[in-house]
């Protein structure tokens, strides 16, 4: 491919970018909920989360609340997501600098010629799960085949193709999920999507029963989650800014796991409906399932990614026919900003977080 071709955008992508910029401009005019560090002397950047403020965003809010971003020369605005938000559009439209994403969509972006790139992965396991009513005939995820399942539109480009290809789920099982558990609670033959860190508690409280929960990561869904994405242009032109944002965010997560109170205060300010019980439940699940502090993260640091893990994810999806086998999936990520080792990230954090070395940091954040 010659240099001219490298700099040309095909007609389809050009039209897509036009739509992206227009959609992003509209979103900018309507989106009101955002928090800023307010440090005008620092580099101003905006992070868009993937949902309204919840525990899954705790480390980012913690870095803002405790001044970690400011200590890295950053004036960070956190912009809440939601069911109608499209982080990729906002990112490509230049209205945000970083976005919470996922690898499945990142690889899909490569196929579509969208120049975004993943620079860190906070969750080593995707919290995505399917939830069912107690039923002796349902013992595994495969037993949900043929049953109505409430899923969001986002599932169509993330885990649903995986479920279809590996477990024989069909599109006629899908029911529109509007992030309200009532239809699922009423229909005892149904299932619904959720995050293992949130929806099971909500269903137990509203439905009065303890649901069956199937974490997709336990059934071969290898995706990272809560990834940090940015534009490839930013990585190329200002890698120092990207490194500082990644470092500060990771330090924020270490701090949040130790004492979440500062971050939770900001989360509750942004999302007054969330309860202390929900925040504590999310944090407990992070630890129970080692979503953030996996064995690899305990060595390389929170946010770690590996080329082998990305390869395994891609190849598993390509084998199922979700991606073309010749897709250059490596363009979806870079590991240059992560895998620095635990002590690297804790060096500028609270002394309480680094009182011991040589791989023993885990005990100080549990």
TrEMBL record:
<feature type="domain" description="SsuA/THI5-like">
    <location>
        <begin position="56"/>
        <end position="261"/>
    </location>
</feature>
<protein>
    <submittedName>
        <fullName>ABC transporter substrate-binding protein</fullName>
    </submittedName>
</protein>
<dbReference type="Pfam" id="PF09084">
    <property type="entry name" value="NMT1"/>
</dbReference>
<dbReference type="InterPro" id="IPR015168">
    <property type="entry name" value="SsuA/THI5"/>
</dbReference>
<dbReference type="InterPro" id="IPR027939">
    <property type="entry name" value="NMT1/THI5"/>
</dbReference>
């Amino acid at each position: 491919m010659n240099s001219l071709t490298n700099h040309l955008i095909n007609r389809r992508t050009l039209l897509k970018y036009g739509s992206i910029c227009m959609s992003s401009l509209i979103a900018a005019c309507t989106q009101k909920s955002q928090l800023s560090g307010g440090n005008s002397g620092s580099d101003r950047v905006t992070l868009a989360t993937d949902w309204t403020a919840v525990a899954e965003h705790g480390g980012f809010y913690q870095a803002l609340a405790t001044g970690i971003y400011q200590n890295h020369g950053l004036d960070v605005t956190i912009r809440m997501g939601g069911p109608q938000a499209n982080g990729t559009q906002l990112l490509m439209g230049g209205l945000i600098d970083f976005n919470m994403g996922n690898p499945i969509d990142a690889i899909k972006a490569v196929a579509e010629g969208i120049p975004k790139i993943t620079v860190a992965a906070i969750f080593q396991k995707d919290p995505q799960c399917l939830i069912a009513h107690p039923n002796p005939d349902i013992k595994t995820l495969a037993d949900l085949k043929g049953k109505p399942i409430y899923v969001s539109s986002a599932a169509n480009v993330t885990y649903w193709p995986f479920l279809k290809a590996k477990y024989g789920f069909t599109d006629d099982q899908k029911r529109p999920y509007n992030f309200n558990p009532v239809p699922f609670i009423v229909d005892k033959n149904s299932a619904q999507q959720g995050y293992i860190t949130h929806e099971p508690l909500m269903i137990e409280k509203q439905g009065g029963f303890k649901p069956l929960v199937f974490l997709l990561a336990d059934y071969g869904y290898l995706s990272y989650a809560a990834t940090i994405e940015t534009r490839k242009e930013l990585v190329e032109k200002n890698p120092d800014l990207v490194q500082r944002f990644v470092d500060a965010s990771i330090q924020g997560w270490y701090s949040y796991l130790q004492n979440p109170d500062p971050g939770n205060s900001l989360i509750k300010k942004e999302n007054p409906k969330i309860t202390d019980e929900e925040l504590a439940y999310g944090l407990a699940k992070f630890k129970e399932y080692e979503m953030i502090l996996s064995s690899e993260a305990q060595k390389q640091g929170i946010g770690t990614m590996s080329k082998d893990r990305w390869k395994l994810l891609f190849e598993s999806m390509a084998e199922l026919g979700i991606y073309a086998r010749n897709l250059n999936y490596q363009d979806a990520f870079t590991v240059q900003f992560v895998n620095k080792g635990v002590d690297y990230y804790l060096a500028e954090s609270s002394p309480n977080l680094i009182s011991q070395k040589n791989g023993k940091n885990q005990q100080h954040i549990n």
